[in-house]
Amino acid sequence: MRLATAEISFSALAHNFNKVKQFAPNSQIMAVLKANAYGHGLVRIAQRLDQADAFAVARIDEALALRAGGLVKPIVLLEGFFEPQDLPILLANNFQTIIHDRSQLEALLASELDGQLITWLKVDTGMHRLGVTPEEFDDVYQDLLACQNVHPAIRLMTHFACADDLNNSKTQQQLGLFKQLVQGKAQQHCLANSAAIVGWPDSHGEWVRPGLMVYGVSPMLNCVGADHQLQPVMRLKTRVISIRQIKKGDAIGYGSTWQSPRDTTIGVIAIGYGDGYPRHAPTGTPIIVNGQQVPLVGRVSMDMITVDLGPVTEAKIGDEAILWGPELPVEIVAQHAGTIPYELLCNITPRVDYLYRE
Ligand SMILES: *Cc1c(COP(=O)(O)O)cnc(C)c1O
């Protein structure tokens, strides 16, 4: 019997990629595949994104894994390179680098490479995480242009802090500052993550970089994928492994944190934080057993969770339980667990089986 399984739908993936194209019809698409394609399987997902214009990852190892998997598209390193020794690896593998800090410029200036790297100069317009400052942007740009190791088509980018919130004026401020800074530089631009692709069409430059929405999950506050006609790519499911009757007042699980207010039936389901199900999911988090939504009760343990099936139930051992997927948006589960869907998807552990389906 298959227990914790992440079922991955390639048709949903293709549907979502087409949605990105509809949202940003005039942009090239760099599909973001960091963190094992948000827990969906790096190479398997990349193989199905043949319409992407490029891939983006956070670490060189992720980019090398794509090459080892036979993928030949350009790959953008979203945090750039970390040491000067990385540069020949980038050049040899057709990896493009973000330049977000002067130290990277200095490493480029001090190197002797056998060719020219494609670079994306990132300016910090208000996120205050990565990116050169607006004040140093022009200087760094000119130095990059003059650098022998750098291809003269330097792409320009920034990243939004609050694009998921349509009521937050910060995105317009960041966009305005970016437009002002890039004026007079005839280069390609890339600003939009999923939230900006969906919510801020003015920000779609020559390139967009969607992650979450490709996997069918909403990037916007208090929304689910279906609100933007996205289809969840992952269904996380497992099986019921035990059913038991309990009495009113009986306590369930570690710490005896939940006591039943009535005589009821408890289902034990084979998934836990050892599979990546969030331990912080509290009593009341929805789970689907046999097509019925039931509440999680008591603490999540490493290998199991418990649900209240109610006094009268037809559920039996072996029944399917769905933790999230098309029937139960991961956004909702994340809300219950006090986190974001990104974290739940990335946290799937190697113990979970993957089942790829058309
Ligand atoms: C992860 C990441 C993205 C993708 O963000 P989503 O919200 O998943 O679309 C885009 N740009 C950068 C710089 C990132 O780190």
From TrEMBL:
Residues binding substrate, per UniProt: 129, 302
Highest rank taxon of the organism: Bacteria
Record GO biological process: D-alanine biosynthetic process
Pathway membership: Cell wall biogenesis; peptidoglycan biosynthesis; Amino-acid biosynthesis; D-alanine biosynthesis; D-alanine from L-alanine: step 1/1
Gene Ontology terms: cellular component: cytosol
PTM sites of type N6-(pyridoxal phosphate)lysine: 34
Keyword check for Transmembrane: no
Family annotation (SMART domains): Ala_racemase_C (SM01005)
Cofactor entry: pyridoxal 5'-phosphate
Cross-referenced PROSITE patterns: ALANINE_RACEMASE
Domain Alanine racemase C-terminal: 233-357
Keywords assigned by UniProt, alphabetized: Isomerase, Pyridoxal phosphate
EC assignment: 5.1.1.1
Active-site residues from the entry: 34 (proton acceptor), 254 (proton acceptor)
UniProt GO molecular function: alanine racemase activity; pyridoxal phosphate binding
Catalytic activity annotation: L-alanine = D-alanine
Homology family: Belongs to the alanine racemase family.
Purpose of the protein: Catalyzes the interconversion of L-alanine and D-alanine. May also act on other amino acids.
Protein name listed in UniProt: Alanine racemase
Record organism: Pseudoalteromonas ulvae
